[in-house]
Amino acid sequence: MSNQITNIIEGIKDSLSFGSKGIFGLDIGLSAVKVAQIEKSGSDDDPVYTLSKYASVSLPEGAIIEDEIQKKEEIVEAIKEAVSTAGIKDNTVCLGLTGPNTVVKRLQLPGGDEEEVEDQVLWEAEQYLPFDIENSSIAFHIVGENEGGGLDVVVGAARNDIIQNFSDLAKEAGLKVKIVDLGMLSVINAFEYIEEEKFGEVTESYLVLDLGAQKTSFMIYKNNTVIFTKEVNVGGVMITEEIQRQMGVNYFEAEDLKITGDESGNLPEEILAIIDDVIEAFFSEIKKTMDFYVSSTSDESLAAVFITGGSVQIPGVLEGLEALLGVEVSVINPFEKIEYNTKKINEEDIEDIAYKGVSAIGLAMRSV
Ligand SMILES: Nc1ncnc2c1ncn2[C@@H]1O[C@H](COP(=O)(O)OP(=O)(O)OP(=O)(O)O)[C@@H](O)[C@H]1O
Ligand SMILES: [Mg+2]
Fold first, then answer.
1. Ligand 2 (ion): which residues have CB within 5 A?
2. Does the pLDDT of residue 362 top 70, yes or no?
3. What's this model's pTM, rounded to 2 decimal places?
4. Domain locations in the chain as residue ranges
């Protein structure tokens, strides 16, 4: 291996890693900053996770666009507020990254010794990464041997400047970044633990969707691993923006109208009409991605769909996805499996955490 490749691999192992101890999860989304801390008990084979601390703090409009930080001060303040509201005393985090300059991909490699596998990962990465490999960090995790005798590997990669910029936010909030993880992997991590008992044959595939504010993460889980991912550019903020435009209100007013409706808690006709229009765009993008996945892999074994993210609550999403994909769709409920500390977490926040907190929970689980 050339020196440069060795350096990249070493750098990568430091910055993107698959496991460590004693820290909390930090998820910086478009709409809010979320922090979560998990305690683990039980055995390694049969762990019991308890959500011990959690908080979410809203961000102002357009704080991050794709992965470009627009409102640094506000995000730093929101991180500080989230940590103090949650009552978190530690200062090391597992930070989740998302956006167009991150990649999660399953590779099927010929295999060999450690060095050979690293070489194969790098060679493959160079072919498919949508950004320059020299300035990015890559980590991989060997899932197991595949039928052909080769290795199945999940690779995570992120551009270094993105890692740097997001780490700086945490640092300015007085935190140390111990692990950098990818948002999609953290969702899969939590999903796998929460829904495991519902899995059928390993050859069946499951679609996992994280319907956020600015994007929808599309992930296919099969053979005990994530085998396909795509970030789809549809999210709840499209509805918010349309409400702003059509009704002449500001971002927070529009969010409020969308989420709570009018004084009596009903969604006015105008808003329902906007929602109907925008979710058509959601469905069409998701269908396109599903069709692409099926045509490029010939995998027709979709058994069920699991959804998470705040935009899951948009009226008609669940039913619409069922009609679109022809399989059962259910919302991931972390509290079917994960316990929570009733002294630290309010009962009335549970529903909100269940919808929006899965990524932060997955990041927190990574750290125990
Ligand atoms: N009751 C509701 N009805 C419709 N939409 C809702 C509801 N509650 C929250 N949302 C929407 O969910 C979105 C926030 O979800 P989430 O917290 O998962 O996104 P995020 O992580 O901040 O964004 P991203 O991951 O895309 O950066 C917002 O667009 C918000 O308007
Ligand atoms: Mg999110």
1. 29, 212
2. yes
3. 0.93
4. 3-240+275-366
